[in-house]
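Our collaborator T.R. sent over the components below with a one-line note: 'Predict the complex.' Nothing else. No constraints on interfaces, no templates requested, no preferences about which chain binds where. So this is a plain run: every listed entity goes in together, and whatever single assembly comes back becomes the starting point for the next discussion.
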Amino acid sequence: MIEVKNLYKSFDGKPVLKGISAVFETGKTNMIIGRSGSGKTVFLKSILGLITPDSGIISFDGRIWSKLSLDEQRKIRNEIGVVFQGNALFDSMTIEENIMFPMRMFTKKTLAEMKDRVNEVLEQVSLEGVNDKFPAEISGGMQKRVALARAIVLYPKYLFCDEPNSGLDPKTAIIIDNLIHDLTVRYDTTTIINTHDMNSIMEIGEKIILLKDGYKQWEGDKSQVFFTDNPDLNDFVFSSHLFKRVREIVQKEGKFKF
Amino acid sequence: MLKQVFKRPQKAKIFWENYFREVDDLGIKSIGLISFISFFIGGVVTIQTARNLSNPLIDKMYIGYATFKSIVLEFSPTFISIILAGIVGSYIASTIGTMRISEQIDALDVMGVNSLNYLVLPKVLAAVTFYPFLIIISMFLGVLGGWVAGNLTGMILTQDYLTGIRYDFEPFDITYALIKTVVFAFFIATIPSYFGYYVKGGSLEVGRASTQAVIWTSVTIIVFNYLLTQMLLS
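Returned assembly:
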């Protein structure tokens, strides 16, 4: 479980996060949603330790980040898997070397053991036979899978995904969403996904937090999305005619079930 | 920054792999160009010196003497370092800068890798240990180029040239040149790394960082060339 209390962050005197508190539960896909510029990325990067917040508490299963030594923080980082928006694959390394990298850095596994694990995670993300290719030689969807494979290779306790569907076609996006959900259940991770993709929210949003102008505006699960009267959430989620129509149908039926 | 760079590597095996790759990228791949430049500049120095020492009262061997001193004391350690700052400096700044803007450095950081140490230390060590060899090659080829040019133009005889390069030979000249080389190699690896590592924005900013890195590395080399010369030779 990841707990965030009263997180504040400003850049050049301009506040971006204004006292956000949230609890992200283990074994669930927690989603941070909001429009561009709402503070989602700063929030996610603050939890990841890539941005130092002005104030607030971030704890990983009770371990308060700001009170840990650098070595203790590195230990937690070993328990974290991240899928970046642009995948952040090392372009000078092959797919196999990319996935193997965290194992080479932090484990004492033999080469054969590492190769076995690489093949295992590639199988889990339904991507086989690409071991010797370079990131530039595979498609965006495949790169995303490789990024996921690298993120889970060390059996992470915490999985972060920043806009995992950006640049992907709707079909591939749904596949990636379901993959993230499956891996969350399989590895019992605390998964946090940063997105503004409505399909993702409806597909795997077990816990949803809406950010707007640096504040947390709403919190709930995907079934509650259809029945809330929160104007900010309704404005964000049901901005398209399609979703407005879906809401009408769901509200008419009185329950959310696809 | 430097405190993080000079921490003990997290995994020695990976560090040495990176070190040898950097020796190849930053050093061995520069040998061809550096050899070419050194050989021809050596020739030019000899021809220009011979043209300026046309007085029959001045012994011809001074042409070899002047060429040797110019190459060893200044051209090879300083000007080859400035050329390397251009070639290698832009390479370092742009590769690290691209890693920064494509979140590859963030990926290293969140994994718990000390990214400064992982990326910069092998470069610094590769430059500091390999560039002295590169400069020795440059010195040799510069002097050789001078001899070839002197012979081809008939401006100086081989015997005079050899007498000149051995005349008043100070072993400390080589030491002084290599001390300068090591200091400049440190700048060539660290300053562009700094500009690349802390770049913000996109590809345009990476390009700008790369240019800035070359400018500041060159300026630092020129200033320290003066300071080191004053410290070591005056």
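Summary for T.R.: The mean pLDDT of chain B is 93.
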